[in-house]
Amino acid sequence: MGCVEALNYEVLLRNCSFREYRDYIRKNCRESHDVMPGYKIFDLALIGVPPIPIGVDGDYVIFPYTKPCHGTFVLKVEGKEEISRLRSGK
Amino acid sequence: MLPPVRYHTVIKNMSESEGEGLIVLGCPEAPAQVSLAIHLAHGLRKEGKTPVITGNPSARALVAMADPEGRYVGEMIDLDRCIEAMAAKERDFAVSFVLIHVESGVSFAGTISAISGGSVVAVVFGKDAKDLSSLIDFPCKKAVVGTVHKAGLLKAAIAEVTGWDA
Q1: Whether the Cβ atoms of residue A36 and residue A50 lie closer than 8 Å to each other
Q2: Is B147 on the interface with A (CB under 8 A)?
């Protein structure tokens, strides 16, 4: 199980709804990949209402991170391996 | 001093989970959540299912405080580990109740609906219940009640979808 605090992340959006982050990622990322809830990125299982978009911006991935009390954040984290995995559909 | 929260391994044989019901706690700031969790655990036990609770540490600790000897709750597991185990198909539940009183709860219900082969019941309560319920566009049953303090209405909403006595 991963820990988000172990990542060097930038917060792009905070306290957003799942509809807001879907729109944000699709509008602001030229490349995005839809995944299902439970998809693991940086060893974190994603929470959300399907489909969950993950954006790609250069060497960075943009993805939602949801906690019960703090809502959803959109995070930007460098991750070439994660991008390769997204593109391969695994 | 609070009683220790009971932790058990998440990994179980799938067949062991057929008689289990999951209760997914949301943000612990809604006092009614503990009553709902105990009520659901009681109902699951009456159906012959072992209730399993998941949630963040604060939410689990509040339930453990209300049920210190585990008379209602069978097991408590970490929320992240529970989601991971279900997504990896290492564990599943015959039925999952997801307690929702803020928007993030809808996301957790959507997740459980996508990764579980069992039935899912979204228990949406509180002043924003109708708006939150309208966000649910994935397969699940819904118990929707716009109150946080009227036990009769909360029980009736659950009874309507479960068939349990209100």
Answers
A1: yes
A2: no
